[in-house]
Design brief:
Blueprint lengths: L1 E7 L2 E7 L9 H8 L9 E8 L2 E9 L9 H13 L6 E6 L2 E7 L4 E5 L6 E2 L4 E4 L3 E6 L8 H9 L10 E9 L2 E8 L4 E3 L3 H15 L5 E5 L2 E9 L5 E8 L2 E7 L3
Parallel strand pairs: 2-3, 4-5, 10-11, 12-14
Antiparallel strand pairs: 1-2, 1-17, 3-4, 5-6, 6-7, 7-16, 8-9, 9-10, 11-12, 12-13, 14-15, 15-16
This protein binds the ligand N[C@@H](CCC[C@H](N)C(=O)O)C(=O)O.
The ligand N[C@@H](CCC[C@H](N)C(=O)O)C(=O)O binds next to α2 and α4.
Length: about 260
């Protein structure tokens, strides 16, 4: 089977052109393909399929092989993949697990429109919201030196977020409208270099909690992203865009 490897700020994915719907989906197989010792290695695997009403459909699996909720960096990578396949020229509409997404590409970046957010559950020492995937967001003083796995894993399995659990983001303001964000990802069960839905959640919490305005620039371990948004009268967010690079790394062939 031919595969394509893409990364968006270091969040890396196996992309498969499954327009013929021949990929043999199984949790064990996908987990093996994503394994960094026994497989290709990736934070997730994404199938690109045809859809009668859209340019394409995105079917996303976490590295543990289970079908996941929305993946922002994966969404940007599949847009670049669809563009590389010649499925659209500059702008596209595609279907993902959380509904329709619009996106556009230029040489350097992919701009992915995220779904509107109704509001943020703000607690005393953290915030929780769903940006296509569930995210816990906490402001910390020294994000660079903290142990994200040691602090994030208990949050990921905390009973407050049961039964699905949550991703855990730790953010530090590094400028007037700038953050450094690190994320423990559910389904990878480790820190990843970047999480698109996680930085989207962090930018909105930074607006609400720290007074940051759109666009918020975000540094991650794997590179830089921007999140732009408009606030709505009822306390939500619309016109939400996740913006940053998404590139093909290599292609190959693997036995399934
Ligand atoms: N890496 C993703 C998030 C993927 C989903 C997450 N692992 C979950 O299960 O909630 C992103 O870029 O948004």
């Amino acid at each position: 089977m031919d595969f394509f490897k893409y990364q968006g700020t270091g969040n890396d994915f196996i992309l498969i052109d499954d327009r013929a719907e021949t990929f043999p989906v199984s949790q064990e197989r996908i987990a093996r393909l994503c394994h960094r010792r026994f497989g290709i290695g990736a934070d997730g695997l994404i199938l690109l399929r045809n859809h009668p009403e859209y340019d394409f459909q995105m079917v996303y699996f976490n590295a543990d092989g289970a079908e996941g909720s929305m993946c922002g960096n994966g969404g940007r990578c599949i847009v670049r993949f669809a563009h590389d396949l010649g499925l659209f020229e500059a702008e596209t509409r595609f279907l993902a697990v959380d509904g329709e997404h619009q996106a556009s590409v230029n040489d350097a970046e992919v701009l992915l429109k995220m779904n509107e957010i109704a509001g943020i559950d703000q607690q005393a020492d953290y915030a929780f919201l769903n940006t296509g995937s569930p995210h816990y967001v906490k402001v910390v003083e020294d994000v660079e030196s903290m142990d994200v796995v040691a602090e994030g894993r208990p949050v990921r399995y905390d009973s407050r977020f049961a039964p699905g659990g949550t991703n855990a983001n730790f953010m530090q303001p590094i400028g007037a409208n700038a953050l450094f964000v690190r994320t423990y990802e559910r389904g990878v069960e480790d820190e990843t270099y970047s999480c698109g839905t996680g930085v989207t959640a962090s930018a909105l919490v930074a607006h609400r909690q720290l007074g940051m305005s759109s666009p918020v620039s975000i540094q991650t371990l794997g590179g830089n992203l921007r999140v732009s948004f408009v606030t709505t009268a009822d306390g939500g967010f619309s016109d939400l865009y996740l913006i940053g690079p998404a590139v093909r790394v290599f292609t190959g062939s693997v036995a399934v």
